[in-house]
Design brief:
Bound molecules: pyridoxal-5'-phosphate
Oligomer: single chain
Distance between the termini: 14 Å
Number of strands: 12
Helix content: 25-40%
Radius of gyration: 21 Å
CATH superfamily of the largest domain: Type I PLP-dependent aspartate aminotransferase-like (Major domain)
Strand content: 5-15%
CATH architecture of the largest domain: 3-Layer(aba) Sandwich
């Protein structure tokens, strides 16, 4: 195809959001600039309070990125050499990267095919099969709430509780996602020992640079995290422990404070877009395409899924992407290589075939544009072009 595509549909367009909030954002940023207080301060405190209120958690600790949230959470549990941390092999690299950076061993358990999240039955089977001296090494489990939908936390907490293992939620893609647990409707990041969030610009709540946050209901742990956020100095310049510089930038906190009140409406627009894609796909009855599954759709939740990504499972994925790209539709693969097949983790000794569901997901999934301001006609165009591919 050489002709110019009839339409261009980007994977993400942050301009409409910027245009709507530009004045307010500028004012909030200039407030920090004019204050000359460029480290921590009132914007950071206000953001922590606001996010804690939104999540329904006791403590929120603003940090420098989602990656640093995960790293600091593990440091808060004193994870280090000789320790093991169990997670899914199908996630963004940071989930396992932070474990290895601390000298601990990432251990993988496969995902569930419908949710793309850590499979609790496989987790239980794995832990039950470990000899006692190996179980003692497992310091944490990191379930990932991939694409914006919570992992099955009741089941994961039950297995973790049996062995006294901490649970760190990687909620980087799932701020505001709800879970219909035994203890009632709760938000992602309040379901385990700690929750880790990212405000990377492409997340549902995005900063204008890097930022992140840790949530917890454990006061003693929150104190440790705050100390380790500033190199472990408490009081300043007196170090009982070693931390790092994991502070959130107050300019990013100011940006996030402007955006947070809009988050629910953005979730709603993403959910409407997702429902529209799913209905268009159903109309076409394409057997080659499987839309995302809402695991808690029947539980009366407002946000059983926040659709940070709308990920479909398809046949002939790479050819489809090429077809869509030539027709102006941008897509992405989250993620093309599972952790156990990454070169840097070859020392862990895993083989291809060890985690068949993760490998299948890496080979068969593709994310379609789903940002809030996406128009109906753009969505219709995407599905038309997708239909054209399978008809041709
Ligand atoms: C975005 C993301 C992170 C890392 O967040 P950064 O803010 O980019 O460091 C970690 N885990 C998952 C699942 C993510 O999607």
């Amino acid at each position: 195809m050489t002709a110019k595509p009839a339409m261009t549909v980007p994977l993400l367009d942050l301009k409409p959001q910027l245009q709507a909030l530009r004045g307010e954002l500028q004012e909030a940023i200039m407030e920090v600039v004019d204050s000359t207080g460029y480290i921590m301060g009132p914007k950071v405190e206000a953001l922590e309070k606001a996010v804690a209120g939104y999540l329904g958690t006791e403590h929120a600790i603003g940090v420098s990125s989602g990656t640093d949230a995960l790293l600091l959470a593990l440091m808060g549990l004193e994870v280090g050499e000789g320790d093991w941390v169990v997670t899914a092999p199908f996630s963004f690299f940071a989930t396992a990267g932070v474990v290895a950076r601390l000298g601990a061993r990432p251990v993988f358990v496969d995902i569930d095919a419908d949710s793309f999240n850590l499979d609790p039955a496989k987790l239980q089977e794995y832990l039950e099969g470990l000899p006692a001296q190996e179980i003692a090494k497992v310091k944490a489990i990191i379930p990932v709430h991939l694409y914006g939908q919570c992992a099955h936390m009741d089941a994961i907490n039950k297995v973790a509780g049996k062995y006294g293992i901490a649970v760190i939620e990687d909620a980087a893609q799932a701020i505001g996602a709800e879970y219909p647990g035994a203890s009632g409707r709760r938000r992602a990041g309040t379901l385990g020992t700690m929750g880790c969030f990212s405000f990377f610009p492409s997340k549902n709540l995005g900063a204008m640079g890097d930022a992140g946050l840790i949530s917890t209901n454990d006061g003693a742990l929150a104190d440790q995290l705050r100390i380790k956020r500033v190199h472990g100095g408490s009081p300043k310049y007196y170090h009982k422990v070693i931390g790092g510089n994991f502070r959130i930038d107050p300019i990013q906190a100011a940006v996030l404070l402007v955006k947070l009140p809009h988050l629910e409406s953005w979730h709603q627009q993403r959910r409407e877009n997702a429902a529209y894609y799913t209905s268009l796909l159903a109309e076409r009855g394409l057997a080659q395409v499987k839309p995302p599954q809402e695991m808690y759709g029947g539980a009366g939740l407002t946000n059983p899924h926040i659709y940070n990504q709308y990920v479909i499972r398809v046949q002939r994925r790479d050819e489809l992407r090429q077809h869509l790209s030539e027709r102006g539709v941008s897509t992405e693969i989250y993620y093309p290589v599972s952790f156990h097949e990454q070169e840097c983790f070859s020392y862990l000794g895993y083989q291809s075939g060890d985690f068949p569901e993760s490998e299948r997901a890496a080979a068969e999934t593709v994310a379609l544009p789903i940002y809030p301001e996406l128009t109906r006609s753009m969505q219709e165009y995407v599905i038309d072009m997708l239909g054209e591919f399978y008809a041709g």
